[in-house]
Amino acid sequence: MKMIQKTGLVLFLIGLGAFILIPFFGSYSIDEALVRANTKDIHQEKMAEILAPMYGETYSSNFAFLGAFGENFNSYNDKLKDQALWDQVIWDDYRFALAKAAVSSPVTENPWHFLFLSIGLAVLGGLLYNLPSHAGEPEGIKNNGIFHSSMKAKGWLGMLTGSFLILFYIVLYWYPAFMVNLVWMVNPISEMLSGNPASQWFLYGLIYTLAIIVMGIRMFRKYRGNKYQQLRTASVMFFQTAFAFLIPEILVLLNQPYFDFKNIWPLDYDFFYDYQIDTFLSSGGVGMFMLIWGILLIIIGVPVFTYFFGKRWYCSWVCGCGGLAETVGDPFRQLSDKSVKAWKYERVIIHSVLVLAVVMTAITIANYFSGFSFLGNVTNQLHSFYGFAIGSAFAGVVGTGFYPFMGNRVWCRFGCPLAAYLGIVQRFKSRFRITTNGGQCISCGNCSTYCEMGIDVRAYAQKGQNIVRSSCVGCGVCSAVCPRGVLKLENGPEDGRINELPIIIGNNSIKLNV
Ligand code: SF4
Ligand code: SF4
């Protein structure tokens, strides 16, 4: 390892270590926190009464503070629930807001210092690690020693990284009150961009964007001889930074709804939720434009662009989940399961999620127009279930946390309902295909190994058969790693796009369509 890489690794580890330790700093006091936390007026007095035993106390850790809060708050709510006094139960979750208002730590005093010490050093370290001089190195994509790498081949380092990511997502989605110091740390940036204090989602958006930028720069270096890879990497970096991160924050600064113009239903599963529709309708011309733009993307944008370019226009060039998978997830792409069994599971699971999203949305819209008389409670339960199981557990915890276990496209391959929709169009009505010059194939298997969607590309190449698969995201890496130039991503006439070329086995003409 070169000196510059070693320095980068050390800086990254210091930054990561600081990021892990920062949540544990500081002390917590409930005095004044209720007012600062913007607790709803109707709950102010009641909450002060419930939390009275905590007044005057100073808690030395977030565990102690949240433990005491839970004890008082839950015993109040549990009593009401036992007596079935549902309308008096406080359903709002105030833990994050209260913990953020109650904490007093060096981080709240000097957020910039801690921001530099943690995220700043991690970014700097990541850049240095990924950018050693490659002078003298021959052109070409290096995947040297990939199956001997503890990180990239499910060794202990990969397991540790995956476990850390899973833990991070669990805390982010369900226990954000434990990360209030980290949120304080990014508060100044949030105030600058939107004029609002930071939430855990702002922290997440910032880390997500920086991770795509740092690892995107790594992609530029790794695939430096390949224009297609360079362009689509630049594209996902741009869409994440501008469309997913900056523009929504600036819209809020301008008193407009928070909106990501490139997020499409059903990936953006709450697009038709009543509070979203109300927000659009009450935000004048801009809100109306957002509503119409979102609907046009669903019914015109997806089919038309996918017809001409395949699903790659979105999955590999625009999407934020795809952007993370293609940059941060690139070192893990070879871990995708290529078995036929995995393919079968993939089809059942992803289409089930699509059906669930469609049913949930249909009920939501019917409910909205019937003045909430139509299955009101079922709609709420469906929203909660979908948000928990698909929006958080599948897309976040499994979707990213499992990179080091199952490859970088677990969510896109098995769970994303938009990928399923794009895939149906790509399979049945598109000009996109990967053509294979079978005569040149030497069966090295590089293409199958590095296909992140688990497609056995080699099997098609050996037969000279076009690859027309609903799951192919058109990342082009199979083509990039092929030493013989066998594979070509093309948009062409629909005629002859699907060419079934079965392998004939033995004398009995048994046909094997793989
Ligand atoms: S078949 Fe090729 S282009 Fe399609 S997802 Fe796999 S590696 Fe990417
Ligand atoms: S990488 Fe190229 S040569 Fe190797 S198996 Fe795939 S198509 Fe054939």
Please give a quick description of this structure:
This protein is mainly alpha-helical and 514 residues long. Helices cover 60% and strands 4% of the residues. Among the domains are: 27-104, no CATH class; 431-512, Alpha-Beta Plaits (2-Layer Sandwich), CATH 3.30.70.
Molecular structure report:
- With 514 residues, the protein is mainly α.
- Among the domains are: 27-104, no CATH class; 431-512, 2-Layer Sandwich (Alpha-Beta Plaits), CATH 3.30.70.20.
- 60% of the residues lie in helices and 4% in strands.
- The chain contains 24 helices and six strands.
- It has helices spanning 3-21, 33-36, 41-50, 62-82, 95-102, 106-109, 111-130, 156-174, 180-185, 187-194, 200-222, 227-253, 274-281, 284-309, 312-315, 320-327, 340-369, 376-401, 403-406, 410-414, 417-428, 446-449, 457-463, 477-481; strands at 27-28, 103-104, 432-436, 487-491, 503-505, 510-512.
- The strands form three sheets. It has a two-stranded antiparallel sheet. Strands 3-4 form a two-stranded antiparallel ribbon. A two-stranded antiparallel ribbon has the order 5-6.
- Strand 5 (503-505) and strand 6 form a beta hairpin.
- Helix 1 packs antiparallel against helix 7 and helix 7 runs parallel beside helix 11 (200-222).
- The protein starts with a helix and ends with a strand.
- The mean pLDDT is 93.
- One iron/sulfur cluster is lined by residues 434, 451-453, 455, 457, 467, 472-478.
Q: What is the percentage of strand-forming residues?
A: under 5%
The secondary-structure class comes to mainly alpha
Low-confidence stretches: none
Query: How many DSSP E strands?
Result: 6
The name CATH uses for the topology of the domain at 431-512 is Alpha-Beta Plaits
Radius of gyration: 25 Å
Compute the separation of the termini in Å: 42 Å
Number of helices: 24
